[in-house]
Amino acid sequence: MNTPLLDVRGLHLCSKQNPDSSLVSDITFSLSAGATLGIVGESGSGKSLTLRALTSALPRGINIASGDIKINGIHTIKNGRALKKAESREIGMVFQNPMNALNPLMRTGALLAEIHRVNTGESKAASKEKAVELLQMVGISDARRSCEFFPHQLSGGQRQRIVLAAALAKNPRILLCDEPTTALDTFTQTQIVQLIKSLCRERNIAVIFVSHDLSVVSQLCERICVMKDGELIESGQTKNVLNNPQQHYTRKLIDSQRLLEGDRW
User: Fold this and answer.
1) Which residues are CB-neighbours of 130 under 8 A, at least 6 positions away?
2) pTM (2 decimals)?
């Protein structure tokens, strides 16, 4: 039996102020190389906290109370205790708001070159060329010229492509996406989702995609987990869950989106 690339068992998160009350309870799932998993649920359901726990990047005041996390068979969290910091090169992350994720004082090319150089040890010259290659890879036109732009000189869709390029600059095996298309228009959303899908398929990168938008998740993810009040209440193949939900809450999520947008999956 192959070892999962990512294995999460019995994850519990709590706040320091109220350690007896779980913010996230008993989350268990695994992910193999190249697999795609969507985590959906309403705001406050624990989706983003679960994602951030995988990199030990939880907000201040929130702790892992118990549970195990393994990356490539190696414990990073065991019984709630950090044993080994998650390898930064193993995981890339794409955030919801690219302006908060990018350094406003750094040109895009310099940012990508620095990330690549720090994580690979390549020379400055080679890393500069890699920055151009990364911009081309994520569909930025006139990539060499775009390396000179600051984040504020780019559109929202272009900035999100830069954030994706930055996540891929370290050659990760796992890509974590925290609502990366929420602030984008529908057309740009589709472009970004298809870009993530094609790039990760080419590189055999596993993806966890957090969203409240079921139609976006259905475009990208083979499997889906539904969260409510910090608990994982339903999971399975995406088409099976969306077409034949077993939980009342999942049906309500689906019905509410159909009411607003129609059936897009």
Assistant:
1) 112, 113, 116, 122, 169
2) 0.91
